[in-house]
Design goal:
Blueprint (H helix, E strand, L loop, with lengths): L7 E6 L3 H16 L3 E2 L8 E6 L4 H20 L4 E6 H6 L1 H6 L5 E3 L7 H9 L8 H6 L3 E3 L20 E5 L1 E2 L10 H5 L3 E2 L2 H13 L4 E5 L7 E2 L2 E2 H9 L6 E5 L8 H9 L6 E3 L7 H7 L5 H14 L4 E8 L6 H14 L3 E6 L19 H26 L3 E9 L5 E6 L4 E5 L8 E9 L4 E5 L2
Parallel strand pairs: 1-2, 1-3, 3-4, 4-5, 5-6, 7-10, 10-13, 14-15, 15-16, 19-21
Antiparallel strand pairs: 8-9, 11-12, 17-18, 17-20, 18-19, 20-21
Helix pairs in contact: 9-10, 13-14
This protein binds S-adenosyl-L-homocysteine (SAH) and FE3-S4 cluster.
The site of FE3-S4 cluster has 9 residues, from helix 7.
Length: 452
């Protein structure tokens, strides 16, 4: 094994919860190999930028950031700069050529070999016969997708002492026509339920009482005859567990059984993120989402019937190629009908290699049009959201205190329904549960007062 006891690593993560969890995994792997985790890029011997490829904007941010980090390398040429995650997988050697100061690109299935690959770079190995690498030193690309890799037996370095991300599934078997995920993370693979349960028992043993199960279509989980709702029930029943969440479910795999488990198990939070993407059947068909507005609404109805006080959130894409004004209005109508507690809203972003890129050229909407639609959508959602939240002022909610707030003397936490609340409390309340009276809302978040 390669060991560089005094080396330090800084991991900077972009993107979704799965990526945050992967960042913790990389830190865990490197700590286990003798690295220290540094809290800033300036001090680290190894800098890892853990990237997202979901939209062009996400990639542009990362390109800007690695350009900045290059400045650090000018002062300290021995620093190793690695780019990991979905954008590394997508661009691979193209990224190494474009940014010759990057030493390593590594995809989401290769993190186990991180210490070994960093060791190779430190020893001056060379895997790419590129012209730039000759001048600048070795560059490595580790990009194989590995259907057998579920990172079993490795420990994440959990950064929160309060709650924990637990990936139970990696990759995706869908082919939503806009989405790059199946290409950069490969097909769906599920962890063994016994391993998941053991890990969560350890998490609870460490004093954390909230877990979020992660997967691209987390509720399609199936392993050794155990389906998602069965796993979820077992997780909820682990002694000491207080809050179980999961993200993101695919609407098609929201079954009555799953909703019943959510309704029956007191430790499963009344919260469901249900990405709908569009409120028009024709657009949904072109996106290959495999449900209709009607069947989606049926799921929402069933969920609300079974789980009173359910908080619902969603993802929406506007300006998918060919989306007409009327089809866009259908999405606004869906928002008004469902009244989601929260929505993550995006402009369609073309991802090379995805099926939607082959739609007729004239179907692609202008940036201005897309921006207009996004602004309208956000306006509609904001007003619904603040109405919902205004109506919640006056409630007393159980809040899990997560961290100190921005204002001195304040802490931040979340309700079971995943709403953020700021309130005055000593910092030793962090990690515990408090009853909090909600006194006001900004529309998005709440201010409250502790109830004795
Ligand atoms: N099933 C995954 C989806 C990951 S991507 C999950 O929910 O965990 C998260 C969201 O990004 C998607 O739901 C979609 O709304 C948005 N998205 C994905 N690809 C996109 C693209 N090409 N352009 C714009 N938004 C996109
Ligand atoms: Fe992407 Fe659709 Fe899978 S949004 S992650 S291809 S379910």
């Amino acid at each position: 094994m390669t060991r560089f006891p005094k080396k330090s690593v800084y991991v900077e993560t972009y993107g979704c919860q799965m990526n945050i969890s992967d960042g913790e995994l990389m830190e865990g792997i490197l700590v286990n190999d003798g690295y220290e985790v540094s809290s800033s890029a300036e001090e680290a011997d190894v800098i890892i930028v853990n990237t997202c490829a979901i939209r062009e904007h996400a990639e542009e941010r990362v390109l800007g950031r690695i350009g900045q980090l290059y400045a650090l390398k000018k002062d300290r040429p021995e620093v190793i700069l690695g780019v990991t995650g979905c954008m590394a997988q997508r661009l691979g050697t193209v990224l190494l050529k474009r940014a010759p100061y990057v030493d390593l690109v590594m995809g989401p299935d290769a993190y186990r070999s991180l210490p070994e690959q960093l060791g190779r770079i430190q020893r001056g190995a060379r895997s790419l016969p590129s012209r730039s690498s000759k001048k600048r030193g070795p560059q490595l690309a580790v990009l194989d997708l590995n259907i057998g890799e579920n990172y079993e037996g490795l420990t994440q370095r959990r950064t929160s002492s309060v709650s924990a991300w637990v990936p139970i599934q990696r990759g995706c078997n869908h082919r939503c026509t806009f989405c790059i995920v199946p290409y950069v993370r490969g097909p769906e693979k599920n962890r063994k339920s016994s391993e998941v349960l053991q890990e969560i028992q350890e998490i609870v043993g460490s004093g954390r009482t909230e877990v979020t199960l992660l997967g691209q279509t987390v509720n399609s989980y199936q392993s050794e005859g155990i389906s998602f709702h069965e796993l979820l029930r077992s997780v909820a029943r682990i002694p000491g567990m207080r809050r179980v969440r999961f993200t993101s479910p695919h609407p098609n795999d929201v079954t009555p059984e799953l909703l019943e488990v959510m309704a029956e198990e007191p430790n499963i939070c009344e919260q469901l993120h249900l990405p709908v993407q569009s409120g028009n059947d024709k657009v949904l068909r072109k996106m290959l989402r495999r449900y209709t507005v009607e069947t989606f609404l049926d799921k929402v109805q069933l969920a609300r019937d079974l789980i009173p006080d359910l908080s619902l959130s969603t993802d929406i894409i506007v300006a998918f190629p060919g989306e007409t004004e009327i089809q866009f209005e259908d999405t606004l109508e869906l928002l008004r009908q469902v009244r989601f507690d929260d929505a993550y809203t995006y402009k369609y972003s073309l991802r090379d290699g995805t099926p939607a890129t082959r739609l007729p050229q004239e179907d692609f909407l202008s940036e201005d049009e897309a921006q207009n639609r996004l602004a309208k959508l956000i306006e509609v959602q904001r007003s619904i959201q603040s109405e919902i939240n205004e109506a919640e002022v006056g409630r007393t909610e159980e809040v899990l205190v997560e961290k100190e707030g921005r204002k001195k003397g304040q802490v931040l936490g979340r309700t079971r329904r995943n709403k953020v609340v700021a309130f005055t409390a000593p910092s030793d309340t962090i990690g515990g549960y408090q009853q909090v009276f909600l006194t006001s809302t900004t529309g998005a978040t709440f201010v409250g007062e502790m109830v004795n």
